[in-house]
Write a structure and sequence with these properties.
270 residues, Rossmann fold, four-stranded parallel sheet, globular, Adenosylhomocyst_ase-like_sf, Adenosylhomocysteinase-like, Ado_hCys_hydrolase_NAD-bd, NAD
């Protein structure tokens, strides 16, 4: 069995050891990005074992992506920056489950929250929840904090980082370390100053500083604690999915991506 988070292990196995898949019974994936990768493999006809999409089970999606991020975003930001959020202008890139949790927490503290979103339904949800939906370039010069939650790559580019104001905070709650173009900041013209664990000041030649958290990696995993209840819910859901795929009679699951059966998601919480 493969138990994956982000699709990285599955992708690595396909690339390095494709013959091993002859012995593998199935894949269990828990992240938005990893599930997206599995659907891409399935559509291309390259998925050679059954895969279980744990991310979209109700227990995982709500407790881990929505409720946990609603708590850990503030925990991570407070631990690293000690910043006061009342009146601060914050842009949250992406209004999926993670983005919804982040926006709810920041709004509750009195921050002025903007949302960027390319999906029209998610953009409508953000609007109906009382957030102003904008393009990042429209607000890049005025916001105090940028939080990425898209599962995509290069959401915040070097050009946008160049235009951010002095003292701005940039962090990632989305996928891995791909959302912020950190590689473009590692040049001789910019100076990196480590001010505390997981906190770097990136200094431009004119003296402007941008505060980068966890070097662009996931803020909630690098800078905050995750409630034990959330961890237990996620781990239990994954374990049940592994057991289901392993014990399933031959022919029940074909070479495709499956949602966790609803009854199994209910059993996770019970």
């Amino acid at each position: 069995m493969i138990l994956d988070d982000g699709g990285d292990l599955t992708h690595w196995m396909y690339k390095k050891y494709p013959n091993v898949f002859k012995k593998i019974r199935g894949i269990v994936e828990e992240s938005v990005t990893g599930v997206h990768r599995l659907y891409q493999l399935s559509k291309a006809g390259k998925l050679c074992v059954p895969a279980m999409n744990v991310n979209d089970s109700v227990t995982k999606q709500k407790f881990d992506n929505l409720y946990c991020c609603r708590e850990s975003i503030l925990d991570g930001l407070k631990r690293t920056t000690d910043v006061m959020f009342g009146g601060k202008q914050v842009v949250v890139c992406g209004y999926g489950e993670v983005g919804k949790g982040c926006c709810a927490a920041l709004k509750a503290l009195g921050a002025i929250v903007y949302v960027t979103e390319i999906d029209p339904i998610c953009a409508l949800q953000a609007c109906m929840d009382g957030f102003r939906v904008v393009k990042l370039n429209e607000v890049i010069r005025q916001v105090d904090v940028i939080i990425t939650c898209t599962g995509n790559k290069n959401v915040v580019t070097r050009d946008q980082l160049d235009r951010m104001k002095n003292g701005s905070i940039v962090c990632n709650m989305g996928h891995s370390n791909t959302e912020i173009d950190v590689a473009s900041l590692r040049t001789t013209e910019l100076t990196w100053e480590r001010v505390r664990s997981q906190v770097d000041h990136i200094i431009w030649p004119d003296g402007k500083r941008v505060i980068l958290l966890a070097e662009g990696r996931l803020l909630n995993l690098s800078c905050s604690t995750v409630p034990t209840f959330v961890l237990s819910i996620t781990a239990t859901t994954q374990a049940l999915a592994l057991i289901e795929l392993y014990n399933a009679p031959e022919g029940r699951y074909k070479q495709d991506v499956y949602l966790l059966p609803k009854k199994m998601g209910e059993d996770t919480y019970i």
